[in-house]
Amino acid sequence: MGRGKHVDKILLGTLALLLVGGGAIFTSAAFGLLARGATHTSSVVFNHLVLGVGLGLIALSAAYMIDYRVWRYWAPHLFAASLLFTCLVFVPHIGVTLHGSTSWIDFFGFSFQPSETLKIAVVLISAAIFSTLRDDVRTWRGPAAFAGIIAAPTLILLLQPDIGTLGIIVVAAFSVFIAAGARLRDVALFGLLGLVLLATVAFARPHVLDRLTTFMNPEDNPQGEGYQIQQSFIAIGSGGLFGRGFGQGVQKFTYLPEPMGDSIFAVAAEETGFVGSISIIGLFLVFVLRGFQVAARAPDMFGALTAVGLASYLVAEAFINIAAMVGLAPLTGIPLTFMSQGGSAILMSLGAAGILLNISRASK
Asked: pTM here?
């Protein structure tokens, strides 16, 4: 494993706090959904706790024990397999359409979002390619490599469409590109191209345009597209400084859509208040900064770039979710990392955290 044999205790402790706190808030939100008389609550809880957290902890342990250098060899194979796996959503009777997006597959009653595997695969292939290019990153080969990496995922996710997942993947690959030494003009160019692409998709896909319009004017349709964000504002605002108390939130019982899903931060804010909300944000900040420190101490460039990409993807996911709940970003359906319901999302997030912890063991 190299010089170091000890895991980064601060990184591990932060992860543990996020998992335990997330589990508590998830349990509280589940009781709220159960009180509504929802019939699918037990299956959602099973998918989250057993298929998500349970298998996720196994994935974390396995990734923690495997030398991260192995992933450099397997990166191209995993990337190709993830692309093919994600394309299964277009196969009739396998792909499932939810909320206007065909991004799920269903096998014998178990649903899975295959694009979750793409997040890790894109980080690994980006780190493998840019650590090989080294000085050539600042030539035309750097931008060409970045464009080549995100081309296929962009096409597949636009066809679904799943703009939220695409955004996370682009952020992860872009962070690796920047950490590898990308030129400022290339960073600015791709940023501009991203804005142009988003505007094009918004006009081509009505539901994407609706979300952007709702973000700009959430009060225009409070009983329609703006309902979720309005109820989120009420829940967060009613939490005050210290919150109503654990399990005492009101919005989750009747009004707040998806209390165990992408609205779980609003549940946390109502029950733990401003102090609890800031604590959650602070934990994610510690996690990403510690991830970057692991990258700075990694013994090789592949480990450093992988750490940057994984830490960026995990925390960008969380901050995009939180920003949407407080009205600073459009609603995307992106889950709150380590907290929201979703077996496939938390499974892959914990697997990614395991790789990050393994890199920390080899740190100088």
From this structure: 0.90
